[in-house]
Amino acid sequence: MDPKLLRELANETMPFGKYAGQRLMTLPIAYLVWMQNKGWPAGPLGEKLALVLEIKHNGLGYLLKPLVEEGGTTQ
Asked: pTM of the predicted model, to two decimals?
């Protein structure tokens, strides 16, 4: 897996909705499942959200924590 992508997952924030401004990796799994059932957003954001769900579903969210950058987010 691309280390750059993992760093993006750890630091990128949700651009809209109930969890706007929250880091993708901290989104509740229930919300990610709901969004999956509703349909992922088109483009890179949808792909990243699907990957975050897969990581969390497999209990691997802790692997992204060391990649969190202080005060910085990417969008």
From this structure: 0.85
Inter-residue contact 52 to 25 (CB < 8 Å): yes
C-alpha dihedral sign at 14, 16, 22, 25: negative
What confidence tens digit (pLDDT) does each residue in 16-46 have? 999 999 999 999 999 999 999 999 999 999 9
Estimate to the nearest angstrom the gap between the alpha carbon of 39 and the chain centroid. Answer: 15
Q: Which residue has the tokens 């280390």?
A: 3
Q: Enumerate the domain spans of the chain.
A: 3-66
Residues 24-34 as b/e (b if ≥16 CB within 10 A, e otherwise) read bbbbeeebbee
Rounded Cα gap, residues 33 and 74, in angstroms: 23
